[in-house]
Design a protein that fits this description.
With 410 residues, the chain is α+β, with helices and mostly antiparallel strands. It is built from seven helices and 17 strands. The protein has helices spanning 15-31, 171-174, 218-226, 345-348, 351-366, 376-381, 401-404, and strands at residues 2-7, 36-39, 58-66, 72-81, 87-97, 101-109, 121-127, 133-139, 152-157, 178-183, 201-204, 230-234, 254-263, 281-289, 299-301, 325-330, 333-338.
């Protein structure tokens, strides 16, 4: 577990106290003999794929190397000041280091709202019993990956690129800036739900490791959804064992049909364009509510209706369009299934799919009511740009510090 500790510092200290502290740190520093090393395998391991947002829980992934031929039991600490400037210690223990071996250790902390993550933090390894300092290092997230508290985050796992989400990154048109981050490997996700608090949404697409694959923190993902996260799954033509019992409560209670070829759904078209999807069929997996399911347990969604372009063969009553989107609530969050592989090469090579089809899909999935304007420059020249409406940030802590000032340690 991660255990926070806190040190409260008064404004007045005696010189002898400072001298004693300085001597103790010098002695501790001399105790480091290189037998224990702290390593960062990827710079993206500091933060969620390198992204950090002050005021939000952040993960850290360290490799601790034991160069001695004996077992060592240690604690690993992340030290950072809180909003009042008091030292907070996020500790992971017990950590057992095998002889001449290394171990991955995950830490979790909340960078203070007024912190500057680019300046970095101190991490250390101490002996669990004696508190002897064994190793210390300074780490920081990659440059340009510190997010404003106003920025929402969508995680995208798989090989689907931005999948049309780049059109919703502009706060001018969506009233909130959204950052899309690529999740390189689901096994690198934090093993605690709060390490994923940065994300509002996690989108699973083809090419990503399956949710029940070895090393994927399924329990942490479930806890994250239960506490308000939104998991979106784009189904592929291949059966990825969606009937796994471990997913039974997480997924919407629907039957995932076998992959079949159907004409391109009309909502992928733009009503003002004669998109050439003639005679093109794509693979989909129809979603059907299980017997006895009610609206409050599962909802079948249809993307925004559009006029069927002339190039599309009208659907007859005998051939109703398949339901491709199902959603249900899971705790305070929700899970959405999309019976369409959004990274299907047949679709991704079509510019109209990127310009109109995917944005229409995402507006349905996320409940976004405003369209993504496609030509901001033209609107600006015409004087029709919508003003940005960003969330205000108010610091409510300025009056707290003098009222809780302490002159000792807790």
């Amino acid at each position: 577990m991660t255990h926070p500790g806190r040190t409260f510092r008064g404004s007045h200290r005696l010189a002898c106290v400072f001298a004693a502290i300085a001597l103790s740190f010098t002695a501790a520093a001399l105790a480091q003999d290189g037998s224990v090393l702290i390593e960062v395998q990827r710079e993206e391991d500091i933060g969620l794929e390198g992204f950090v947002r002050p005021g939000t829980w952040a993960p850290m992934r360290l490799t601790i190397r034991n160069n001695k031929p004996s077992i060592r039991r240690v604690a690993v600490d992340w030290l950072a000041p809180d909003v009042d400037g008091d030292q907070v210690i996020a500790r992971r223990y017990p950590v057992t280091l095998n002889p001449n071996d290394q171990q991955v250790v995950r830490l979790y902390g909340m960078p203070a709202f007024n912190s500057r993550p680019n300046e970095g933090w101190r991490v250390r390894v101490v002996d669990q019993e004696s508190e002897e300092l064994l190793a210390v290092a300074r780490v920081a997230p990659p440059p340009n990956r510190v997010l404003s508290p106003r920025v929402g985050v969508i995680g995208l796992a798989g090989n689907a690129g931005y999948s049309g989400l780049e059109r919703f990154r502009d706060a001018t048109f969506q009233h909130e800036t959204r950052q899309v981050i690529s999740i390189v490997d689901l096994t690198l996700l934090p093993d605690r739900w709060y390490g994923m608090q940065l994300m509002d949404t996690l989108v699973w697409t083809s090419g990503a490791r399956f949710l029940t694959a070895q090393g994927v923190p399924l329990t942490a993902i479930e806890d994250w959804v239960r506490r308000g996260g939104h998991l979106v799954i784009s189904l592929t033509a291949a059966d990825a064992n969606w009937q796994d019992e471990r997913l039974k409560g997480l997924l919407p209670p629907v039957r995932i049909g076998e992959s079949k070829k159907v004409p391109v759904p009309a909502w992928l078209y733009h009503q003002d364009r004669k998109t050439d999807f003639t005679n093109l069929t794509i693979s989909v997996r129809e979603l059907t509510p299980l017997p006895g399911m009610k609206l409050r347990e599962v909802a079948m969604l249809q993307p925004l209706k559009t006029e069927t372009p002339p190039t599309v063969k009208p659907v007859t009553p005998e051939e109703p369009p398949p339901d491709l989107i199902a959603v249900h609530q899971f705790g305070f969050g929700r899970v959405t299934l999309i019976g369409l592989d959004i990274s299907d090469p047949q679709l991704t090579k079509n510019p109209d799919y990127q310009l109109y089809g995917l944005p229409r899909l995402w507006r349905t999935v996320f409940g976004w009511r405003t369209p993504a304007h496609l030509n901001a420059k033209a609107l600006a020249e015409e004087g029709r740009l919508v003003a940005e409406h960003l969330r205000d940030v108010v610091d409510l802590t300025s009056f707290i510090s003098p009222r809780i000032a302490m002159k000792t340690k807790a």
